[in-house]
Amino acid sequence: MSANQFQNPVVRWIDHRLPIFSFLNHEATEYPTPKNLNYFWNFGSLAGISLVIMIITGIVLSMNYTAHVDYAFDSVERIMRDVNHGWLLRYIHMNGASFFFIVVFIHIFRGLYYGSYKAPRELLWMLGVVILLLMMATAFMGYVLPFVIVGVVILHLVALHRFGSNNPLGIDTRGPQDTIPFHPYYTIKDFFGLSVFLTFFAAAVFFFPNFMGHPDNYIPANALQTPAHIVPEWYFLPFYAILRAVPDKLGGVLAMFGAIAVLFILPWLDRSPVRSGRFRPIFKIFFWVFFADCLVLGYVGAMPAEGIYLVIGRVATVWYFLHFLLILPILSVAETPRPLPQSISTPVFGGSGAMAGASAAPKRKVE
Amino acid sequence: MRKLFLTLATAVITASLSNVPVLAAGGGDVVLRQADWSFSGPFGTFDKASMQRGFQAYTEVCAGCHSMNYIAFRNLADLGYNEAEIKAIAAEYEVVDGPNDEGEMFTRNGIPADRIPAPYPNELAARAANNGAYPPDLSLIVKARANGADYLYSLLTSYQDAPAGTAVPEGMYYNAAYSGHMIAMPQPLYGDDVEYADGADTSMDAVAKDLVNFMAWTAEPALEERKRTGVAVMIFLVLLSGLSFGAMRFIWADVKKTGA
Description:
Helix content of chain A: 55-70%
Low-confidence stretches of chain B: 15-27
CATH superfamily of the domain at 46-71 and 115-221 in chain B: Cytochrome c-like domain
Oligomer: heterodimer
CATH topology of the domain at 46-71 and 115-221 in chain B: Cytochrome Bc1 Complex, Chain D, domain 2
Strand content of chain A: under 5%
Shape of chain A: flat
Shape of chain B: extended
């Protein structure tokens, strides 16, 4: 877009020298987006907003927090009692971590179901896995990693905008009749999604702030006395179950990291040319079995590592890896997918193109 | 797709609920007594009269062994005391201050800015005086135990004789609400342990509830403000969701119409 499309002379002057407004217009306003995205595509922007919420509350909290083994607990209580609205900041940050993971887990399962990791979006997917890994690492060692996450998120967005969003049909957009401009269609849809998300989030912050935490977090740490049952935050439970399933310390750690590592090579394990699970009858079954498997792992991770829980945990761990390393590669060749629609607009429009929103869409090539 | 969404939502909720047994872990065969707390629920508020009685009971019964490190006298304004009353309460305590100009520590009467003085100077002194057991600080105890309010209410009222055949070691006591049932804390309440100025019930059950009301506040002084704010925020967000849904339908109308 040329600079003289802007009315405001100051904007035009700046844009001629630094095309920041053209860039925003191109990538955030007219950015052509498949018109058939369902509500699962809201979770990407929700994840981004969660990250912003975490960084802002985190920075303000860090101004009052004392990162020292002898003072940390007291400083948190000072935030809760004496800092103006410190209780609100801390509860937003505390529950924000849980909601960030809820949103990201839904975002990931959406990608798994609709094949969003497949060509040409392999790097987009892998950058997303890096973000997941960094989010988990942040829970253990913070402070700098949030900004590393921001950097990777930017790369994730750049990779996303290269080919645009995948969609529930999993087929490529074939032209302007398949897309609508991001603004106002998806800005308003993301805004509605955000309102609903914030409603749930606020309910947790204001009425159940400690529901997803542990009572032990209100007992000062004692190096000489470990709790009877060590249980991590809920979002680590599936990985914790995998860690404990292997009767060998190094092996357990390798399996736990392997559970993430296997996601990196997923685009090359699932070679089926059909992206969306909607057209893959057998894949769809195994997807839900895998989803249930992850819930089972989460449940087992919360239980004591003994007896039946250990057995279930081991079976579920084996299934987790079998799904990626055996089932998906076999399905790639063994499964007969259902016929794909001609284009995104075909099933809806009976083949013919033009529609109101698309007229504003640019003629940018979207593969 | 709606079905898929519902399935996912249900699964997520189920997954988060499956945490509940973990949060309550450590209870074993303990069944808690439940009471109807004024501070529970979305509109919950503290019972100030009961908290004042609870503060008195804490001072007269618990404070001999248990500290309340995060509470300053000035915080007692939340219980409904005025400034003069808080100064009077603080002045009843001796607080170690210093060093003075000669470099010596000295004691003076408490002022509202002081924290409630702890009964022991450090953990080792507390253990030495209590048969090796450490009486925990009570400021956060309601949040530091699963179902804290019901748990503490049960703990305070569940001392009983050990069942036949159960040996209670020297210096331990049998408590039906305590995990493992052997607790080092002697029974603190027997009924009529305190004398309330307002003539309220001083039965073991009533005093235990007063104490829990007080300790629920020490654990979460901002609870009332939090819930009050939360109601306003929820009303705002529900309206915002409705409005943005309407705006979305309006904007998407041309896409949907052409599509239908």
